[in-house]
Amino acid sequence: MIQETTTxxxxxxxxxxxxxxxSNKCGNPQYHCKDCRAYRVLKPxxxxxxxxxxxxxxxxxxxxxxxxxxxxxxxxCRQTTLRWIRQHVRQxxxxxxxxxxxxxxxxLEVDELWSFVAKKNQNRWIWLAQCRRxxxxxxxxxxxxxxxxxxxxxxxxxKAYFACPICxxxxxxxxxxxxxxxxxxxxxxxxxTSHIECWNNTLRQRLSRxxxxxxxxxxxxxxxxxxxx
Length: 229
What we know:
Number of helices: 7
Low-confidence stretches: none
Shape: elongated
Largest sheet: 5 strands, mixed
Order of helices and strands: EEEHHHEEEEEHEHEHH
CATH topology of the largest domain: Nucleotidyltransferase, domain 5
Number of strands: 10
Structural class: alpha+beta
Number of domains: 3
Radius of gyration: 25 Å
CATH superfamily of the largest domain: Ribonuclease H-like superfamily/Ribonuclease H
Strand content: 15-25%
Strand order of the largest sheet: 8-7-4-9-10
Helix content: 25-40%
CATH class of the largest domain: Alpha Beta
């Protein structure tokens, strides 16, 4: 039987006087050099990842897999995944550029979705406006659940849809912000806002950070905003 022995040296000073020093977050073994006191990865991976791996990681991030879950499955650290998500979002077109043309008779549905960042007492309500015909989200706003946030959503409406009827539930800020001639309030369970409520449910099913009772959540407002996009 032939045995092969590999001798490792410090990548900083070249000294063979090194000892094992556990593993990093990605599971790669590390060492500590007793001469230069450096801490390094024993066998560093080649820099960069293949494009198909990057695409698979981005798809997994949209399918209710947490960042730690992606790290366990693909061996890509969370910092790299976050960087890929930010780069991917920067390449997306502006929401206003993707809106389909307005048709006469279009009706909008508006609703708000509860979420939080870092702690459950740090609420972030996602206000959404959807076209009933196209099922497309026309605009959104993340903030508190008050009249000021509703006003911010109203100001973000596309100009072509400003005169459309707006179906909402009976939450008070809607009546104070939307014009009475356009506003169509209806009680819960009336199916007047079933499309936007279905979209909210789909968002919770696809992204675990928006589930009400979950160990996954956004640690920063920036990532919370990017994942909605």
